[in-house]
Write the structure tokens for this entry.
Amino acid sequence: MNTQFIHTIIIGGGQAGLITSYWLTQHGREHLVLEKADRPASAWSQRWDSFTLVTPNWAFLPSGAEYAGDSPDGFMPRDEIVATFDRYTATHGLPLRCGVTVTAVCPLENRPGYRVETQDGEMEALNVVVATGLFQRPKIPAFAASLPAGVLQLHSEQYRNPLPLPPGAVLVVGSGQSGCQIAEELYQSGRRVYMSIGSTGRGPRTYRGKDIFRWLKIIGYLDRTPDKLPSPRARFSGNPHVSGARGGHDLNLHQFASDGVTLLGHVQGSFDGTLSFAPDHKDSLTKSDAFAAMLLDAIDGYVAKTGLDAPGERPPVLRDGYDADAVTELDLARAGVTTLIWAAGYDFDFDLVKLPVTDEYGFPLQQRGVTAYPGLYFVGLPWLHTQQSGLLMGVSDDAALIASQIVNG
């Protein structure tokens, strides 16, 4: 049986893969998008019921679907995001094939191109664009398997709302955007919440009359390139926590503590139904507070330097999280914890590409998504070109460039 040849194969039908497909479609180039889920941009449908974007609607900028509604400063809810990408795929006739898992990408022998292996068979392509993102495998520690069977364990992508959870307290592990938003919803619904936190930074929803993301664009923060990072590992730092729910508001762990949430350090392990935690929650709070201070100082400095008309503002200083003593052990049964939500993010793995294309951290070796191997590209990852390369407000630029490389290659 002859192996099907496709000029370009895009692996991943999320936002990055779809936008790359949009540009190749505009150029009239043959290609195919392979997506393992049963619908386009499926990651958005795996969010909780009250989920909204944390970036304002004006920053929703997929090529060919830029936001043009009457609420540019609002925050798009989950179902609207999902519907938008469904329409995007249909309206532009993007060649998406769902339910296909790619298992390997191998260079062809003695000729340009790649063999793309799937569970349904093999294809060949002159170009391959890897658009699988960094959020591939839920990050759950091995010791989770030894926790009491009576404790319901969910990853953040499985959480929907407080109602289906068994009665009792909830432990949330992780304080990035997802962990903070889920924890807030839980405790505001009346749940007792314990929270194992990290040092992810925070920022105000608004400052000096503008949304924080408007400021990040104005001062060039999101346009920073990888060489501005303190280390390559910094590429994997969580985005500052802030919320778009209920019209948008601040997320501050000190406020959580004031409202009754017990803040814990990094989780370390478990034994006989008791979890152990590092005594470092105050260190994490210090780092998060320092990030917020740095951010506001950068904005203030820009205003002072440029003379921009922006009203002065002095944010409230909250320190409630520092007041509680460190808790290093939590007996789940004694604390009444019946649900544990793992919200520490995801692991990523590009081993499906059978070439040495990653660095010591497993991140692709590339220049703005272009690898050293002709016809092999990456798109949709943070810091491919700038910090916003993985965001809806920045991925289109990289996708357009990759499509141009393919067209002119």
